[in-house]
Design brief:
There is one protein chain. The chain is of the alpha/beta class. Helices cover about 40% and strands about 20% of the residues. The chain contains seven helices and seven strands. A seven-stranded mixed β-sheet has the order 3-2-1-4-5-7-6, with helices on both faces. A hairpin with a 5-residue loop joins strand 6 and strand 7. Helix 1 packs antiparallel against helix 3. The longest helix has 19 residues.
Length: about 210
């Protein structure tokens, strides 16, 4: 069961996401939510519960839809002092997410870091120990996925997961994603698989240091 307050906000956002999907040409690019789908949200919610996730890092917050699915999992896991750090640089999305997190009652669990992901990831590497995060989600500028992955790999614990969105769609990113897959699958300390849910997810587990 999903926390009731979180579910109420998710349901409201899903209506906005459906409208955006059906009226994409009418919405300026800077005002689009670009959220994951409900199916993907449910998938990660179950995955995070299965690994008993406590500490999560998200690169690309949007309006906080994915973060709400993550928050429900951390709350369900009853992990003391669990936290979600989420990064975005667009004020429109940050303001939207703050309202959604407050309405869902998870604003104390989720810490928003505003700015360029690359810079903030370097700051996080200095702030947190290696192997700190149980789960890291990459859903930002596709051209930087490889760099983000390399910055994140030392931060995720053995047995932890780095996931990436948009592996299959939109098709304009296919070559970039092919390069990303080639890069991560060349590493001997991870195991990775593509999951063909909606836009496609890459699930990469760290099996050794």
């Amino acid at each position: 069961m999903i926390n009731e307050k979180i579910q109420n906000v998710l349901s409201r956002l899903e209506k906005d996401i459906d409208y955006e999907t059906n009226h994409l040409d009418e919405i300026p690019s800077e005002e689009r939510l670009n959220c994951i789908s409900k199916n993907i949200g449910m998938f990660y919610n179950i995955l995070l519960k299965s690994i008993n996730a406590k500490n999560i890092l998200e690169i690309g917050m949007s309006a906080g839809y994915s973060g709400l699915w993550f928050a429900d999992a951390v709350m369900s896991n009853k992990q003391p002092n669990g936290q979600i750090i989420t990064i975005d640089r667009e004020k429109f999305k940050i303001d939207n997410a703050i309202r959604n997190f407050e309405e869902a009652g998870v604003n104390s669990l989720i810490k928003i870091r505003e700015g360029e992901a690359r810079k903030i990831l370097h700051e996080i590497k200095d702030e947190f120990s290696k192997n700190y995060f149980d789960f890291i989600f990459i859903d930002a500028d596709k051209e930087s996925y490889i760099e983000y992955f390399d910055l994140c790999l030392p931060l995720v614990r053995k047995g932890g997961i780095i996931a990436a969105d948009n592996i299959l769609f939109p098709e304009r990113f296919n070559q970039i994603m092919a390069d990303y897959l080639s890069h991560i699958r060349s590493k001997s300390n991870v195991q990775s698989v593509s999951i063909p849910i909606d836009n496609g997810e890459e699930i990469t587990i760290k099996i050794s240091e």
